[in-house]
Amino acid sequence: MELVNAYTKKRSSFGRQPLFCEQGPALCDSVPSDPAAQRGYVLRNPVHQPVQHGPRTSAHTVNTARAEYTTTGSNHAEGGWPKDVNVLDPEATQRYRRKIEKDENYIHCAMSLSPGMDHYVMQNNAIDMYQTYYTELAAQPPLERCSVRTVNVYRDPLAGGGGGGGGRPVSSVAWTPDGAGFAVAYAAMDAHLAPRAPLDAFVWDAESAARPAQTLRPPATLLDLQCSPRDVHVLAGGLASGQVAVWDRRRGAAPAGASPPHAAHRELVRGVLFVNSKSGREFFSGGPDGVCKWWDMRDLSAPTDEMIVDVVHSSFEAQSRARALGVSVLEYEPTIPTRFMVGTENGLVVGGNRKGKTPTEKLPAQFEAHFGPVRSLERNPSFLKNFLTVGDWTVRVFSEDCRESAVLWSPPQRRRVTAAAWSPTRLSLLLALQADGRLAAWDLLRRQHEPALAVRVSVEPLLRIKMHDGGALAACGSGAGHVYMVELAQSLVQSDKNDKALLTAVLERESRRERVLEARARELRLKLRQAEEGSAAASEEPPDERALADAAAEYAALVRRELAAL
Amino acid sequence: MEVKECNDLAEENQFIVDDVSKIIKEAIENSIGGTAYQHNKVNQWTSAVVESCLSQLTKLQKPYKYIVTCTIMQKNGAGLHTASSCFWDNNTDGSCTVRWENKTMYCIVSVFGLGI
């Protein structure tokens, strides 16, 4: 603050002696304490003091003056009459018209406007605007949109009890023959570690995902469960103890019959499949012990037939169990009654014939498919000679004619491919499941180097797939015990008219290529063998060398002659 | 000795307690007239009181040195006792203390004026 006090002082009073005296301690002020006042106050401890230091901002919006626009159409049938002409009066309009026609510019305007108008009028007359065209052509199918969506999830109701992290992994899914429900078997892989883990398998109704329609209680872990194609209520399953068991849904949860352990497989039963028979009660089973057994449901005390999966090349060798290849998946096509196929644990696919007499006739075909166990094996429903196999990281399509290699194969995927199935309605479609929970739809007519659509269905790996007979739904079982019902878009369900011809052409082409390659490979091998045998005659060498030397000398002479001539 | 010039008798050279007291009361009234005690404003108030007192005092245009102190105390029930002792020239110098209070606080302002 600016406080200035300018004062004057007489010189005579400069340096005056101050007459000091003491003013004793005087009270300035005294306020007595008042306890009553203290009661009006409350001790506040602790005291929170918020402090904020931030930039202060403010917002302000400004806009210029806006002009309002509207867009309207106007119908201009006839107009442009000046204000003084009464439009309703025919005479006045007539008079006005005549006046205009007498105008000079009228002629010029009319002449310049009429050609254009003529052109448009004639154009309009030529083409009828209101006619519908192209009615005789068929409607083009709309642009392809492949999509897959999960319609429903059926969760293992016993999950969370024994599984720890999730449920028991799904070990098999099978639709009932009427397509209204499906049977799911769960197999806790560490069943020997947790003997009290629930063993139940369920039959679900496709409509209700809340709880299964029925529970089946096997005596041991159920690894494969199939529905009988003739009878809705009958199911057959393969157990981890090597036995096979049969259920009748009307009877209850316990098996209606089970094979005795001494007649059953020596190791667990990996796959069970129903066979075409008059009664619809015969099925066969296979497992890692390398033997396929045929059973009749009416009498499960002993198998009706047995075959050791040991491929022998001459009829003198006997098949032995010691050399048998473990079976990992079975395949059977009801339209070819006596033939079946078996996928083994070391990657071979072996074709079998029940009616064979000698061992070579019984297992006539063998294909080297994968580097690990074959996980899925299925014939194409319309092209019975071709079948798909799923193994290590690839999906392969084989043709029965080409024994050496697959006809079509997918590039190795990032994760293991765990299962695959053909679509029953769309000829070229196969659905493959991967270990990271993705469903890949491969359409062989569109792209062969990558799936047409790959969708992540679940977080846990997907293990089994079974397509519904209608072709639109697929049930995928996952490692956590959940079954995901997935619906395919129409474009993935239907086949076009010439799909069959195109697919035949594709497969033909591929198999021809393979056969040509096979033939060439055989030729090369033959030549190699001949060369080995022929190398004993070493006298072939010197004449060749002499001829070589002669040729070299001749060439040198020629060159010298040319150079001299230059 | 007889002091020839009795400047002390001149109005200018005397500390007039009544005037100063009036000035102080005015200053307080203007600064913290109708307010209740607020801890975060006390700083402002004391400065305001002191400043306004001082500016009014200098307006008197007297050849004086002034010392102004201001104490604001919340009415909490506590007691306060202040005293002062001075060594000056009794004729020319003086002091004035004013106590002002309202329902929630006391304000005690002391002004010491020392003649130059």
Automatic annotation (TrEMBL), chain A:
Alphabetized, the UniProt keywords read: Cell projection, Cilium, Coiled coil, Cytoplasm, Cytoskeleton, Dynein, Microtubule, Motor protein, Repeat, WD repeat
Q: What's a GO cellular component annotated to this UniProt protein? A: outer dynein arm
Q: Chief subcellular site?
A: cytoplasm
GO BP of this protein: cilium movement; outer dynein arm assembly
Alphabetical list of InterPro entries matching this protein? Dynein_IC, WD40/YVTN_repeat-like_dom_sf, WD40_repeat_dom_sf, WD40_rpt
Q: Coiled-coil stretches, from where to where?
A: 507-541
- Subcellular compartments: Cytoplasm, Cytoskeleton, Cilium axoneme
Single GO term (MF): dynein heavy chain binding
In the record, the note on similarity to other proteins reads:
Belongs to the dynein intermediate chain family.
Q: What is this protein called?
A: Dynein axonemal intermediate chain 2-like
- This chain's source organism reads Bicyclus anynana (Squinting bush brown butterfly)
Lineage of the organism: Eukaryota, Metazoa, Ecdysozoa, Arthropoda, Hexapoda
Q: Which gene encodes it?
A: LOC112046557
TrEMBL record, chain B:
Instruction: Please cite one Gene Ontology biological process associated with this protein.
Output: microtubule-based movement
Q: Where in the cell is it found?
A: Cytoplasm, Cytoskeleton
UniProt xrefs under InterPro entries:
Tctex-1-like, Tctex-1-like_sf
One GO MF term = dynein intermediate chain binding
Q: Gene Ontology cellular component? A: cytoplasm; cytoplasmic dynein complex; microtubule
Q: Which domain of life is it from?
A: Eukaryota
Keywords linked to the UniProt accession: Cytoplasm, Cytoskeleton, Dynein, Microtubule, Motor protein
Similarity annotation? Belongs to the dynein light chain Tctex-type family.
What name appears for this protein in its UniProt entry?
Dynein light chain Tctex-type 1
Q: Which species expresses this protein natively?
A: Bicyclus anynana
